[in-house]
Amino acid sequence: MSLASVLTIDDFERLPDALAVNHELVNGELVDVSGNIGNHILLRDLLTAMLLFYVREHKHGRVLSEQEYDFEENAHGPDVTFFGSEKAELFDGKLRVQRFVPDLAIEIVSLNDKFAALMKKVNRYRRCGTKEAWIFEIDSRRAFRFSDEGDVMLGEEDVFRSSLIPGFSIRIGDLFDQL
User: Residue 80: inside a domain, yes or no?
Assistant: First the structure.
């Protein structure tokens, strides 16, 4: 009888790209997170570009896509993340998994995603110190915000904005219209 060993963050860090890419580490096991379709990628890239340029211009911090972070010994890579300037010194560009959590995490529902699984991730993000988490659902053209300010569902007429990135905003419908 052999016992299957669970992977640690350090083990995940050392995996060859062929094994680690499109995977997250959840409870010691590799979980496939591939399968994103065109609109998912377009929305991720659109949000990344819009936030990246705004955040850089206003020197609010950093925006990254698909960067993995250590959430209670689990390596999750939200579609888009932001962390403020005060965490910039913690960022290590040579690591696969950052050893801190982002201030803002955005997940986009994929074909393979179950909303309950995304909610589990969001709950973990928040429990680990991520101040705000968002889920964007392309088919329904809705967004969901989870923060200390309260959890809300936003429709097309509502605005995506975060107090973590002062001054940035876009109407949800206008965002989805760009897909």
Answer: yes
